[in-house]
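Sample 1 of the test manifest.
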Amino acid sequence: MDETVAEFFKRTILKIPMAEMMTILKAWDFLSENQLQTVNFRQRKESLVQDLVLLCEKKRASLNDAAILDIVYTQFHRHQKVWDVFRMSREPGEDIDLFDMEQFKRSFKKILQRALKNVTISFRDAEENAVWIRIAWGSQYRKPNQYRPVYVVYYSQTPYAFTSSSQLRSNIPLLGQALTIASKHHQIMKMDLRSRYLDSLKAIVFKQYNQTFETHNSTTPLHERSLGLDINMDSRIIHENRIEKERVQRVTQETFGYYPQPRLEFAQYKLETKFKSDLNGGILAEREEPLRCLIKFSSPHLLEALKALAPAGIADAPLSPLLTCIPNKGMNYFKIRDK
Amino acid sequence: MHRSRKKLEEPQTVQAEESALVTEIQKLRRLRDKLRAEVKRRQAGVKASTANVEPDQTWEITEQEVLERKWENLKAVLQAYRFTGLSGKLTSRGVCVCISTAFEGNLLDSYFMDLIVQKPLRIHRHSVPVFIPLEELSAKYLETNIQHFLFTLCEYLNAYSGRKYQADRLQSDFAAFLAGPLQRNSLCNLLSFTYKVEPRGQSFPLCARLLYKDLTRTLPTDVTVTYQGMDALSTSWEEQRASQENLFRTKPLHHVFTSFARKGEMLDMSLVS
């Protein structure tokens, strides 16, 4: 086995936490059950990794096999990457999309390899007719850097692709082109949506986050849960402003619904607006040029935090539509200019 | 003056007074008994009248029961409407439409749409998969002809469910006949696989490619079957190949493989006998 490939194997396996080692190796499905049983998983990690690399060598594992293992690792640790979302479009009135996965892969590979001599492209099929693509970029004179790959997740016959944010931005247009042509679209644009939580991004763009519907079959009434106003509390406790509290609850439920919110870590607003003030005069009010400022809201779970603002009394209900439109519009990056 | 008179009258008047009081006592006792008797009588009378009222109350309960039974029945009918494939429930802002798909009598997934009845009529949210051309259909028909919109959407969803069902059946029930993974896509409108007519036999593997260009149908529009790695075929092999193509074109996918399985069983039986 080539030294660089062996090194790549070693570093990839070393990344895997001991607790997940068996699970990930099984998901990789390259080493058989019997072969895995010959390895002592209780030894020190460095020795375990050595044994596993030897096994891979014996089985003539290729660079592509190592790349697939890297994909499996990333699939288990998708939150370690930040994901961008691209939307593709095609001219209306096109033929029915007869998506052929193998044709897509061939086409995608061909386009990239024609443009770049040195590039490693690997595919792994995933559930829901999706594919994970791993691309290690090289250049005219340099071999691909296996330690800074880009991942793309594409669900067949949808206009959306999710890519892991990469430092090497120069190759993004090429990547976009390959995706567009291989999936038989005409245009691609980057959405103003970014998060670590790939599944939440998918839920937002596929509009899968608000899935409780009223039917005659549903037994649980929708308007059951109340956040905060506990009727069973001690009768000696009186709620002041009960009416206002109930109004806030109602407005919050109408805006945010009864479903768990998709998970985002931030919302960013870039303002380029003229300063507006109630007070007459003042230095800022006389400025002709717009003020430029950046406002960023961060949270481990931004939308749940926004949902809790009004009931907690920190903000008025209803919240600004700039905050509540995030899942609907599929945006968490905003540019606000004067109209 | 009084006292002196009383003293003179003592023996006779005391006796008279005593007897007068005794009479009074007796009179009062008689009155008391009379009153007691009257009270008892009236109490008994009230009990009797309440006893008469009870049958009325049970009659009211029955009427309530009847209404409750009617209500449960109506709810059950509304729930059963699901089986017609297209049902709905009024919401505060419009209607929530439920499209329940089925294929060959098997109830499959249900899809929902929250419609807001306003001008313009719009879809608030839905659970239709992203690869179904909902935007196209709603742009064309939602405003102008909602019936056509709903029926067309039903067609698309039922056909998708049916194709998906066939592909799932092939993968799960007839894996033994496949010589490799079944290649499919989200819409299940392109299926590609390599198979053998006999799972354990010596027959040559065949490659099948099924295209479903009509998204409202559950049978393929284009079928290509080839013997793996063979271009020129003898007449009998060519006949076989063509008949295989025809099978896939006319019968649902899993039925084709069921017939292969049955032929295999018949062959086994004939070998045994």
